Structure formats: C-alpha cells, structure tokens
Amino acid sequence: MMNVTVCYYNETVEFFYNNSNKTIAPFWRKRDYAVVSLGLLVCFIVIFSNLLVIFAIFKNRRFHFPIYYLLGNLAVSDLFSGLAYLHLMFHTGPWTIRLSQYQWFVRQGLIDTSLTASVLNLLAIAMERHQTIFNMQLHSEMSTRRVFIIIFFIWMVSIIMGLFPTMGWNCLCDLERCSTMAPLYSRSFLVFWALTNLITFSIMVAVYTRIFFYVRHKSRQMSEHTTPARHRETVLGLMKTVSMILGLFVLCWTPGLVLLMLDGLYCETCLVLNYEKYFLVLAECNSFVNPIIYCFRDKDMRKTFKELLCCLCRRGKGPSDNDFTTLEVMSETNKDDNTNHKQKNYSQ
Fold first, then answer.
1. Are 254 and 286 in contact (CB under 8 A)?
2. At a CB cut-off of 8 Å and minimum separation 6, what does 135 contact?
3. Which of 107, 16, 85 lies closest to 277, judged by CA?
4. Alpha-carbon distance 237 to 231, whole Å?
5. CA 254, 297, 123, 66: dihedral to nearest 10 degrees?
6. CATH number of 13-314
7. What is the distance between the alpha carbons of residues 53 and 145, in angstroms, rounded to a whole number?
8. Angle, helices 101-134/66-89, rounded to nearest 10 degrees
9. Is the dihedral of CA 335, 340, 342, 343 positive or negative?
10. Which residue ranges run through the membrane (predicted)?
C-alpha cells in the first residue's frame, strides 16, 4: 500500500502549537506584559546603541579600515537583530494565534538571519585578525572593495539561511518531525542550524587561541628597539577588544543553541520550554553589549560617541556651525591654537 503524504498548508499556527504541546495563552497575563515591556526596552537600547556605533565609524576617518568596517557590519547585524526582536515583541504571546504560517516563518526567519549574520561577521573578523596579527600589523592590507564583497557575501548567506524553513525545510508535511520550541520547524533543521553555529564558534575560538599563543611568544622576543611600544599596545588592545566581543557572543548564544539542538534531537526529559524565554533574553542582550565594550576598550570610539551625543544635544537646543568635529579636526585645531600662542609670545 502506497503511503500518502498529507500536508497541512491551510492549518492555523495554533494547530501546530497544539501538535507540539506548546500552549499559547488566549489572553494577556501580567507576566506577558512584563516580558513584552522589558523586551521593548531592550530592543530600543539595542537599536540606539548600534546606530551610535555605525555613525561613529562612518564619521570618524580613523575607523576607515577593514577591521572597523567589519565591526560596523557587526553593528548592522546587531541593529537588524534589535529590529527582528522588536518585530517579535509585537507578534508574540496571545498575538501568536493570529499569525498566518507565512507571518510566523517571517518572524522566525528574521531572528535566524540576524544570528547567522553576526556569526559570519565574527568569523570574518577572526580571519582578518589572524592575518594582521601574524604580520604584526595594526590594520590589514585588504582592499575596501574586498571588504565590501565579504560583507555582501555575509548577508547573502544569512538571508538564504533564514529562508531555508520557508522554502521547504519545515514540518508542514510531517507533523511527527515538528520541534517543540519552534512548532513549524523540522527537528532536522534545528539540529543543522545549531550544529553549524556551534562548529563555527569552535573554529573562531581555535583561531583566537592560536593568535594568543603567537602574540605571547612574539612579545617575549620583541624589544623596545624593534617595535614601538605604542604600536604593540594598540595591536594588543584591539585584539583584546575583539576577543571580548567574541567571548560574550559565545557566552550569550551557546546556551540557546544547545537547547535548540536538544529539542532537535527530541530530548523529552530536557524540558526545553522551561528555559526557552530565559535563553532568548540572554541572546537578545548580547546585541547591546558590543557598544559597551567599545566605550570601555577604545578611547577613540568613546570620544566619537561623546561627540555624536553632544551633537544631538546641540541640535535639540538649536542649530550650530560645528555640530560634529572629528578627532583629526580637533587635533588640527589644537595645533593651530598652539602655533598662534607661540607666535603671540614671540611677538611680545
């Protein structure tokens, strides 16, 4: 007897949630209001802080190098993540029941795309740092054109990864394979997605471990006469900043990816739904930690942030001739002031 495949394209989202034993409250509870309110607050912080990073890199010519272009693209990924979570906040809780299948796939696809973009950005940054550190350079000799080709490739792959479930890698025609955390996703896709990201994490950690051993070995061999101390400190400082970004990213996302893999492997005793929301909040918080790291680790970035914020404050009070001053212009102004001061003293 031939097996007939039955597809459920016309069923509601609630049908799949009931199939996976994932309940949706039909009315708003106090906990739902608290979760959405906190989520919206975090989303706005993520969007504002990463816009600040993007404008800082765009405005200050000191950041017009490959590593900062990649860090800027990472900020774009985090900004996209903030927008994806903002979209999620308005399509979660009791609102989930009203979603069509297509709307549900869009909601999840946005989050998948943002994570993939962040992971690929961090991988590109790791490769860039590997190239420059092994040559003991501050910035790589990679052309701007090549950097933007890499960025284009990152977003193309991320979009394709986010579209996989919509294009057919789902459980609409095989209810037994539906996952618990994402009831319209196939368990096999969750395993593939989680495993791919975890392997990428492992590669990045291996690359940075090799870099650290190399830097420690070279630092013992270098003397003050061979390499300027300030140059070495700048190279190592930028390396530490990037390592902190990677470390916090892995720390924030690994628990959620492990949970997705356990769900994909059909671990009935793991109680994945009990931890789902907590790990989602942890992953969301990662999107605004990078600007905080820049503030504490990068003096030029911190000064540029202050200039941008002061610019916004001045525009709020009224128009000004000097709404924004780059660090280089400030430096030139200080030089001119010092020259005029010396000339004045000489004439006297």
1. no
2. none
3. 85
4. 10
5. 160
6. 1.20.1070.10
7. 21
8. 160
9. positive
10. 33-58, 70-90, 110-127, 147-169, 189-213, 234-258, 278-296
Integer Cα distance of 83 and 89 in angstroms: 10
pLDDT tens, position by position, for the chain (348 residues)? 456 778 899 999 999 999 988 888 888 888 888 888 888 898 999 999 899 989 988 888 888 888 889 989 999 999 999 999 999 989 988 888 889 999 999 999 999 999 899 889 988 988 888 888 777 666 667 788 999 999 999 999 999 999 999 998 999 999 999 999 999 999 999 999 999 988 988 888 888 888 877 777 776 666 554 555 665 666 666 667 777 888 888 888 889 889 999 999 988 888 888 888 888 888 888 888 878 887 777 777 888 888 888 887 876 565 544 443 443 443 444 445 544 544 444 444
Amino acid identity of residue 331, one-letter, is S
| CA neighbor of 329 nearest in space, from 119, 92, 61 | 61
Neighbouring C-beta atoms of residue 58, cutoff 10 Å: 11
Report the alpha-carbon distance of residue 302 to residue 53 in Å, rounded. 10
Does pTM surpass 0.85?
Answer: no
Q: What residues contact residue 146 under an 8 Å CB cut-off, 6+ apart?
A: none
Map out the domains of the chain as residue ranges: 13-314
